[in-house]
Amino acid sequence: MRDYVASSHQEIDSWLSGASRETFGSELILLSLQARKIGDAYDLSGIALASAMGLFETVEGGYQAAQRVFEHNSALGEEIPPELLNFLENPPKSGKQIGRSAKYARRDLLLVILLKYLVTVYKLPKFAGAGTLEKATNKPEIEEATAIGVLKAELAPLNKILGPAKLVTVEAASLERATREFESKYPWF
Predict the structure, then answer these.
(1) Can you spell out the DSSP letters for 42-73?
(2) How many domains does the chain divide into?
(3) Is residue 110 part of a domain?
(4) What's the predicted TM-score (pTM) here?
């Protein structure tokens, strides 16, 4: 994790600097629709099209994501479904929202992705169980043995770019709550 943070510092900084909630929603949609390989077209057939259209129509930033899918697939010579063309011709009305919550959402998505990696690859428990912490004599040691504790410690060098969304000054329980809220808000991701 330490090597990843050191080598990806600029990418993480760039990701966390984005301020538009609409852009953030668009990026989430594109991540969930990701082509099988880099350079492949987005799958817009059958159920995949219905799922993509549902996201385009309901998630903030959906129109922006639909435009990017259209541009990408068109550049690859893929046929564009009429449903997508119709959606792009009749854009939904929404204002671009900029605010601190987008920065927190970006931080929380970064945490969710890294948590899933640590849990899957290293089999760390995501969070310490409440019962475990209540009975513990050394709570910090138990928290450090969880995926959220590892992330809190390893992402500490990024505090300067995290601004108000700092990790070191935040308790592991707050980060845990933030990731759970993120997962409940974006269950489709």
Answers:
(1) P--SHHHHHHHHHHHHHSTTHHHHHHHHHHHH
(2) 2
(3) yes
(4) 0.60
165 Cβ contact list (under 8 Å, min separation 6): 16, 100, 103, 104, 107
**Cα Dmax for the chain:** 62
Residue 61's closest CA among 91, 103, 106?
Answer: 91
3-state SS, residue 98: strand
Dihedrals phi, psi of 81, to nearest 5 degrees: -65, 145
Residue with tokens 């329980």: 173
Same domain? For 79 and 109 the reply is no
42 CB neighbour count, 10 Å cutoff: 21
Please tell me whether residues 84 and 110 are part of one structural domain: no
Residue 94, in any domain of the structure: no
Sequence letter at residue 64: Q
Q: Are residues 177 and 109 in the same domain?
A: yes
Residues 9 and 36 in one domain: no
The amino acid that residue 127 corresponds to is: F
170-174 own/partner pairs: CB under 8 Å, 24+ apart: 172/127, 172/128, 172/143, 172/146, 172/148
Please give the average pLDDT of every successive group of 10 residues along the chain, which has 189 residues. Answer: 74 71 81 74 91 90 93 94 95 61 76 83 75 55 75 74 52 78 82
**Segments forming the whole domain that contains residue 69:** 20-89
Residue whose token pair is 């912490």? 133
